Amino acid sequence: MAGLKADGAFRTIGELSDELGVAQHILRYWETKFPLKPLQRAGNRRYYRPADVALARRIHQLLAKDGYTVRGVQKLLREGRLDGVGQAETPLLEEPTSDVSGADLRRIRERLKRALDD
Questions:
Q1: Which class for 67: exposed (0-12), middle (13-18), buried (19 or more C-beta within 10 A)?
Q2: Under a CB-based contact definition with an 8 Å cutoff, are residues 59 and 30 in contact?
Q3: CA-CA distance, 103 to 67, in Å (whole number)?
Q4: Which of 16, 18, 37, 71 is least buried, going by the fewest C-beta atoms within 10 A?
Q5: CATH label of the domain that carries residue 76
Q6: Axis-axis angle for helices 13-20, 50-60 (nearest 10)
Q7: pLDDT tens readout for residues 48-103
Q8: Domain extent for 37
Q9: β-strand partners of 11
Q10: Number of structural domains the chain divides into
Q11: Looking at the domain assignment, is residue 2 inside a domain?
């Protein structure tokens, strides 16, 4: 199929943006907040290494699906709690607290917000 690259291939910012479903300016913003350091060639064209792609996927998962903030993800990185970047089974909590999902937490947060607004 055209357009598919091997897992070990470098990706342009456009390709990574399409894969993750985020705008290119978001990826450039992430470069200022996280250790994403793509190679830059002529014309400042960005080429993301496989390790950068894996990290971007993990960041996207944490921000968009698990409900973390940028600061929360930065803290996980600082504490070295993203070993095995890109692996879904990477433990994010030191101790399991319950079987509550990110979606459940977002619903609870919305209910609390509505209650406080009333």
A1: middle
A2: yes
A3: 8
A4: 71
A5: 1.10.1660.10
A6: 30
A7: 999 999 999 999 999 998 888 999 999 888 888 875 444 444 444 434 445 566 67
A8: 11-87+99-117
A9: 48
A10: 1
A11: no
